[in-house]
Specification:
By secondary structure, the chain is an alpha+beta fold. The protein has helices spanning about 5-15, 95-110; strands at about 30-35, 50, 55-60, 65-70, 75-80, 90, 115-120, 120-125, 130-135. It has a single domain (about 25-135), classed as Lipocalin. It has two helices and nine strands.
């Protein structure tokens, strides 16, 4: 019969042999909202990103929506916006400040190289860090 101290020793031995739990998986098929405190003045939109299992992605920026292709591995990511996206749409009320913010954010997304997830937060890193939240509603 194994006593409680024996179970504890067995548990500690087993946990030192088994590999540590890998990081949380990438949330394919989930809407990710840019972790912005508030929308930009004059807009009710907050940028969103959704990446499917096959790597197809949709990107909604402050003014523009477009398609992209993403390659996601254990901890790395590459996002390539479709430059010739005929399905890209832009809101008619967008001013030059919003359009410039779209261009900047799209450039930052195109330069991300790593990702990590912690609960409902997903952080992309490259020259800049971009933080997104999983939409859980």
């Amino acid at each position: 019969m194994v006593r409680p101290a024996g179970w504890l020793a067995l548990f500690m031995l087993a946990s030192s042999v088994w590999p540590a739990r890998a990081g949380e998986p990438f949330p394919f098929g989930s809407e990710l909202m840019l972790d912005a405190v508030t929308p930009m003045p004059g807009s009710k939109r907050i940028p969103m990103l959704e990446i499917e299992d096959d790597g197809s992605a949709s990107i909604d920026l402050w003014c523009t929506s477009l398609r992209a292709q993403a390659v996601v591995t254990d901890d790395s990511i590459a996002i390539v916006p479709n430059q010739s996206d005929t399905g890209a749409s832009s809101l008619p009320q967008c001013d030059t400040e919003h359009q410039a913010s779209d261009t900047a954010l799209l450039g930052e997304l195109a330069q991300v190289t790593k990702w990590r997830r912690s609960g409902d937060r997903v952080e992309f890193s490259g020259p800049t860090k971009l933080r997104y939240r999983l939409m859980t509603n």
